[in-house]
């Protein structure tokens, strides 16, 4: 493994856009060539060498899968891992918005918290956040058609997350081990979302397909989801909860076929089968 250490020369006062700080872009490049890559500091065009100190091998590696970037003080940096295809990118602390945007492969590990739009329009690879993350994880942009969000890959957030997780996603998996806010899986057409804790309002709003698992309390359920079954477990990838779940389907407003698993024990107000299941005619 070839390791590069990246650190800002000074503490950033404005957002910095860095689309070329990624392992596959470093492949086959000398440090002199890497310093010439373009970045933007508050909208002003700069070179990486103007903004960062970079320590790495004198002889560049030709195999991006063998390259690891370790970045510190990245809370103001946006677009880390943009279109990344291979290798490993590690953020030692927090990171700004749009990390992993359009990512296609490799591993992005964030040891602190992540901003909003983490893995937006992601097409492959693995993202892990050891802290919490903001809104629109793995989502399409506002105004995009359903299905323009995450299409492949896996995003794991070990803490809490914001709203609109997986909005407009088509495939892939998003796992949040903590709590999340409103509009989880809104407009999704496929893929899977796992929330280990509680969720806000409007889960699965206008979802056409896909799977959503909520392991805790839901702050209200849309009337356009109908109860279909009761099951004894629910899982996404290797994350599984073995307890009773109410299985809903919807969103019927858009003739949706999404599956929504709601933990029965955490939602007593909607857990009575007598009230939920429609008697056979």
Present the secondary structure layout.
Layout: E1 2-8, E2 16-17, H1 23-26, H2 31-35, E3 38-41, E4 44-47, H3 48-51, E5 52-55, E6 67-74, E7 77-78, E8 88-95, E9 107-110, E10 126-129, E11 154-157, E12 173-176, E13 192-195, E14 211-214, E15 226-231, E16 234-236, E17 239-241, E18 245-250, E19 258-263, H4 273-276
Parallel strand pairs: 1-6, 2-7, 6-8, 8-9, 9-10, 10-11, 11-12, 12-13, 13-14, 14-19
Antiparallel strand pairs: 1-5, 2-3, 3-4, 15-18, 16-17, 18-19
Task: Please give a handful of descriptors for the protein shown.
281 residues; mainly beta; 13-stranded mixed sheet; four-stranded mixed sheet; elongated
What does this structure look like?
The protein has 281 residues and is mainly beta. It has a domain at 113-276. The protein is built from four helices and 19 strands. It has helices at residues 23-26, 31-35, 48-51, 273-276; strands spanning 2-8, 16-17, 38-41, 44-47, 52-55, 67-74, 77-78, 88-95, 107-110, 126-129, 154-157, 173-176, 192-195, 211-214, 226-231, 234-236, 239-241, 245-250, 258-263. The strands form three sheets. A 13-stranded mixed sheet has the order 5-1-6-8-9-10-11-12-13-14-19-18-15. A four-stranded mixed sheet has the order 4-3-2-7. The chain has a two-stranded antiparallel ribbon with strand order 16-17. The chain is elongated. The relative contact order is 0.09.
Brief summary of the model shown:
The chain has four helices and 19 strands. With 281 residues, it is mainly beta.
What proportion of the residues is helical, as a percent range?
A: under 10%
In total, the number of strands is: 19
Number of helices: 4
Mean pLDDT: 94
Radius of gyration: 21 Å
Q: What would the principal axes of the Cα set say about the shape? A: elongated
* Residue runs with pLDDT of under 50 for 5 or more positions: none
Largest sheet: 13 strands, mixed
Separation of the first and last Cα atoms: 65 Å
The helix-and-strand class reads mainly beta
In terms of DSSP E residues, the strand content is 25-35%
Order of helices and strands: EEHHEEHEEEEEEEEEEEEEEEH
Strand order, main sheet: write it out. Answer: 5-1-6-8-9-10-11-12-13-14-19-18-15
């Amino acid at each position: 493994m070839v390791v590069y250490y990246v650190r800002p020369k000074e503490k950033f006062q404005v957002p910095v856009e860095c689309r070329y700080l990624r392992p596959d872009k470093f492949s086959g490049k000398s440090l002199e060539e890497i310093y010439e890559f373009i970045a933007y500091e508050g909208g002003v065009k700069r070179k990486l060498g103007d903004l960062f100190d970079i320590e790495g091998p004198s002889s560049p590696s030709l195999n991006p899968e063998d390259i690891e970037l370790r970045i510190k003080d990245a809370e103001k940096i946006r677009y880390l891992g943009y279109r990344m295809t291979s290798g490993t990118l590690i953020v030692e602390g927090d990171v700004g918005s749009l990390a992993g945007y359009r990512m296609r492969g490799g591993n992005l590990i964030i040891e602190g918290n992540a901003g909003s739009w983490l893995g937006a329009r992601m097409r492959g690879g693995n993202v892990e956040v050891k802290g919490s993350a903001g809104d629109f994880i793995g989502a399409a942009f506002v105004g995009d058609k359903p299905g323009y969000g995450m299409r492949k890959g896996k995003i794991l957030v070990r803490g809490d997350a914001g709203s609109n997780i997986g909005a407009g996603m088509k495939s892939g998996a998003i796992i949040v081990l903590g709590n999340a806010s409103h509009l989880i899986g809104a407009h999704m057409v496929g893929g899977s979302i796992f929330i280990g804790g509680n969720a806000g309002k409007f889960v699965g709003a206008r979802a056409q397909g896909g799977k959503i698992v909520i392991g805790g309390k839901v702050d209200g359920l849309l009337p356009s989801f109908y109860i279909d079954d009761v099951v004894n477990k629910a899982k996404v990838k290797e994350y599984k909860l073995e307890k009773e779940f109410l299985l809903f389907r919807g969103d019927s407003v858009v003739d949706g076929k999404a599956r929504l698993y709601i933990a029965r024990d955490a939602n007593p107000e909607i857990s009575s089968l007598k009230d939920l299941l429609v008697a056979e005619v």
